[in-house]
Amino acid sequence: MAEQAWGDVAEIELERRALMERFFAQPVVAAEKEELAQLIRSLMDRDRAITEQGLRERDAIAAKIGNVQTGRRAVQAYGDNQRL
């Protein structure tokens, strides 16, 4: 399930990037500049929050992998000592 969710994130990011490139290719109407600036700030805040969440998830996964590796080494050491 988690792998599918991360795959979805990557797909959505590609779509988001294409939409933003298309949007910023258009000239900005002077009357909309302030509203656009506010929307961009909001987007940047959300982007930062998503990035931070992604980093937390990455770190959590890395910790789990580390625990699995530690467990494997412990099992290997136990098995090695049983043969002595």
Provide a descriptive summary of the structure in words.
The chain is mostly helical. It has helices at residues 2-24, 33-82. It is 87% helix and 0% strand. The protein has 2 helices and no strands. The two termini are 43 Å apart.
**In which range does the helix fraction lie?**
over 70%
Q: Helix count, per DSSP?
A: 2
* Mean pLDDT figure: 86
How many DSSP E strands?
0
The largest sheet, given as strand count, sense and whether it forms a barrel, is: none
| Poorly predicted runs of 5 or more residues | none
Shape: rod-shaped
Which structural category fits the helices and strands? mainly alpha
The percent range for strand residues is under 5%
Radius of gyration: 23 Å
The N- to C-terminal Cα distance equals: 43 Å
From N to C, what is the helix and strand string?
Answer: HH
Short account of what is shown:
With 84 residues, this protein is an all-alpha fold. It is built from 2 helices and no strands.
